[in-house]
């Protein structure tokens, strides 16, 4: 495809190849199935729904879904496509039968994107029945540029009418043109909204935390058995721990054998709840601080949590604050995760124990909506410090924690375009700071740093 044909006019919300009339536009349909490893189908004319052809795992967390949806919308716009509301796998590791509409407000999602991408709830039955064979299947390389979709996917789509893109996770480049980046922000921060029942319960939990304290810390512990097994880390539980976590790890057939001690020294392992508490106390948070714990089932349960509770007695979970109201959500891990997401977003300080999807998306949202502190442990440095903590007094330990955490405290920072993962640093959607050096491009700066709960 000639370079001139790859230029796209984004000024009117819909795309059309430059040099073509609107009447000659080619419209295609995209159906999206978003799993932990999602798949996305593109088609025109003869249509089939993805659920007949895909069987992938849906991630436990609602924020895992959102990242795939964001990029799916952008790809739909690149290809001048219509997006079909996702259908989610009900046979995943987490056994959650929630559909997209059980988690997100579909009507709001559809109307919010009406100027950018057409969204429909389902494909007409008569068109589905006309499907003669499965769609053409291909996998797009990770972080593919828009040109790849136009050069490689679009010709197949025109020729075969049906194309299925499998494992649609991180299949779109991080650095896109400014219009596409702004569309990402529009989808993530405005079009994707939880259902009213989830939103109301999440706000109720926030209000209960505020009734006890005007300010609180939300901690995403990420110390569930699956996370520990996936990390391959060892926490001193002997043969029992190795046997239990090893059995879970065996479910991922492609995971390599790793050196557990080496992973810990390289900062690849989540901190234990006790270590998270020590880090926070070392940073200056007192034992009168209120903590909200966002987590699923903690490995070894209360025994693992007790050292953290000893450091911070005012520690609460959604189950402690809304036990009766949570009953309808008990078997729906994605909806429970959405409630945690709301409370973490509303917190004065958010502490993540794993720099995964939730941490990045939440950090980006907290920057975009108005700067709020997000703390990431410097696990590589803290790991060796925790091993030696009994060899120093508390003042020395605290001083070293503060030193190692420099740059990991969520301070506002200057960002140049193209640096950092976009969902964590949505620079194209935040204010610009003029610079006299035109060769370096614009520098983006987030609003002035607030104090965090009295901690300088």
Please explain how this structure is put together.
Belongs to the glycosyltransferase GT106 family. This protein is of the alpha/beta class. The protein has two domains: 3-193, no CATH class; 197-223 and 270-445, Rossmann fold, CATH 3.40.50. The chain has 17 helices and 14 strands. The longest helix is centred in the N-terminal third of the chain and has 17 residues, at 62-78.
Question: What is this entry, summarized?
Answer:
This is O-fucosyltransferase family protein. With 456 residues, the protein is an alpha/beta fold.
Please describe the biggest sheet, giving its number of strands, its sense, and whether it closes into a barrel.
Answer: 6 strands, mixed
Number of helices: 17
Contiguous runs where pLDDT drops below 50 for at least 5 residues: 1-39, 41-63, 437-456
Give the percentage of residues in beta strands.
Answer: 5-15%
Structural Rg:
23 Å
What is the count of distinct domains? 2
CATH architectural name of the largest domain:
3-Layer(aba) Sandwich
DSSP strand tally: 14
Strand adjacency order, main sheet: 4-3-1-2-6-5
Q: What is the class of the largest domain in the CATH system? A: Alpha Beta
Span of the ends, CA to CA = 56 Å
Which class do the helix and strand fractions yield? alpha/beta
Oligomer: single chain
- Quote the CATH topology of the largest domain: Rossmann fold
Average of pLDDT:
77
Shape: globular
Question: What's the helical proportion of residues?
Answer: 25-40%
